[in-house]
Amino acid sequence: MEHVDSPVIQRAEEIQSKLGANSCSFIKPMLKSHVSGGFWLHIPKQFCVKHLPVDDETVVLVDEFGDKYETKYLATKAALSGGWRGFSITHKLREQDVLVFHLIRRCKFKVYIVRADGLSEEGVFTLQNLESSANKTSFEKEINNHNREENGITNVPLEPIPESSDNDSEIGSEIFNGIKFSRSALEYKEVKGIENFKILINGLIIDSEVNDNFRRKYYELCCSQKSFLHDNLMEGTNCKLAAGIICETVNIADAIRACKPNTNLDDIFKWAKCLNAFDQMGMNVGFILTRLNQVLELGFGCTEASELIRRGEDRLDRVQEEVRLLEEKVKEIREVMKRHGAEIEAMRMNGERMEAAFNEVVKLPW
After folding, report:
1. Would you state the pLDDT for residue 48?
2. Angular region, 174: left φ>0, alpha ψ -120 to 50, beta rest
3. pTM for this structure?
4. What is the DSSP string of 59-124?
């Protein structure tokens, strides 16, 4: 399970540990898609394989007060659908809450809710946690493990700012190897085109950290929202990390646009996890998450429709085979009828001959 080791997760793990070594349980941090929009709860695949039925079935959730809520478990999707929305709304679940699901009997879970809004200041996710933690987030690991050029990030070291001249008329004085210091804030309404589009992080213009292709695509995303998507990033965010977030946002937006009905759902869930992390850091990616939720809902619909079509085609094939067998049977019956008809006709003609012979015999003179 990939997550930042936070007090709310720790409290959930403490609850899980008290359930007993032989208990069947899992921990589920709440994402935006779990508590709003599509209200779809994905269950760990391995848990489903080991402990849940192979067919769709009703799963009962029992809260800490003993109240029961019926939900629809979709086996092929390893997820809870119908009924989960009611449970989430009734219990006022919010993003970053963490739930412990304890399987107490077949298709019945006891659910323990650990509230994120009960955290102290020590539990707040900050840049200092992100950069100093020995256990990095999955996103940081992805940034470090990917080829930086493929993700649109160029390796430009940040050097000391040289002295600026009084005649410098540009928006900022150049820092060694391309990064610039901005003398004034840039508002989106001042952007007239990509030529004067600048990415400002902590007073630094970091355009040189992002290659031209990603910069152009990021500009188009900002234009769609009429604002800089990075405007509310946490104060003090590292330039390299900010560039990574921007480039990964572009990557995910491109991936969503390239989605097909048969796109792997695990990939979509990974994109949602990344976007939710960026959203927590202040990146304006809500509109992309909304689109992703729509894609997810329609994707499940397309998958279900494809499955229904497949089942329908299988049924049609079986019916056609039955028709073929019946036609062969009818053909055999007709052959039998034809033979019987020929035999009956032969017997009729023989009968007529015998009748004629009989009449001749009885009429013979004495």
Report:
1. 93
2. beta
3. 0.41
4. EEEE-TTS-EEEEEEETTTTEE-TTHHHHHHHTT--TT-EEEEEEEETTEEEEEEE-GGG--GGGS
